[in-house]
């Protein structure tokens, strides 16, 4: 599932650091802008995975226009794609669905595991 959060990038001397206004304590840094962006994506992924694993609510992302632009930097969106198949141990679940729903989903080539993960993440965010 794709997540987008605004991030404030700051330049100090010959390096950068980044913070996420919506995610308290989520920060990173780097020597170059490219390195800082990569580190920001990694920090965002780790932060969100921690919230999920602790059963905490995922904060909503602010609008870019609501964040003040600092003198020493700029604001940009940072994305991360949380694919639980790659980032956590998988467990097997047995479930039951109506036969008609199964037939239609199979005919459309829908990935059941991915769909269930996305639906569960959505439900967790909106509870």
- Order of strands side by side in the largest beta sheet? 3-2-1-4
The proportion of residues in beta strands is 15-25%
Radius of gyration: 18 Å
Span between termini: 17 Å
N to C succession of SSEs? EEEHEHHH
Strand elements, count: 4
List the domain count as a whole number: 2
Which secondary-structure class do the elements indicate?
Answer: alpha+beta
Give the count of helical stretches.
Answer: 4
Mean pLDDT: 88
Known CATH architecture of the largest domain: 2-Layer Sandwich
- The CATH class of the largest domain is Alpha Beta
Main sheet characteristics:
4 strands, antiparallel
Instruction: Using the alpha-carbon principal axes, give the shape.
Output: elongated
Question: pLDDT under 50 segments (min length 5)?
Answer: none
**CATH fold name of the largest domain, please?**
Double Stranded RNA Binding Domain
- Helix percentage range: 25-40%
Q: In summary, what is this structure?
A:
By secondary structure, the chain is α+β, with helices and mostly antiparallel strands. The chain is built from four helices and four strands; from the N terminus they run βββαβααα. It folds into two domains: 2-84, Double Stranded RNA Binding Domain (2-Layer Sandwich); 91-127, no CATH class.
């Amino acid at each position: 599932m794709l997540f987008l959060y605004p991030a404030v990038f700051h330049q100090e001397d010959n390096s950068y650091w980044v913070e996420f206004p919506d995610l308290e304590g989520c920060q990173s840094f780097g020597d170059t802008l490219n390195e800082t962006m990569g580190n920001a994506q990694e920090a965002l992924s780790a932060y969100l995975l921690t919230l999920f694993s602790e059963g905490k609510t995922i904060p909503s992302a602010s609008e870019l226009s609501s964040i003040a632009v600092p003198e020493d930097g700029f604001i940009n969106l940072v994305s991360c794609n949380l694919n639980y198949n790659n980032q956590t141990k998988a467990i097997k679940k047995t479930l039951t669905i109506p036969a008609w729903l199964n037939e239609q989903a199979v005919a459309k080539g829908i990935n059941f595991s991915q769909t269930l993960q996305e639906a569960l993440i959505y439900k967790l965010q909106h509870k």
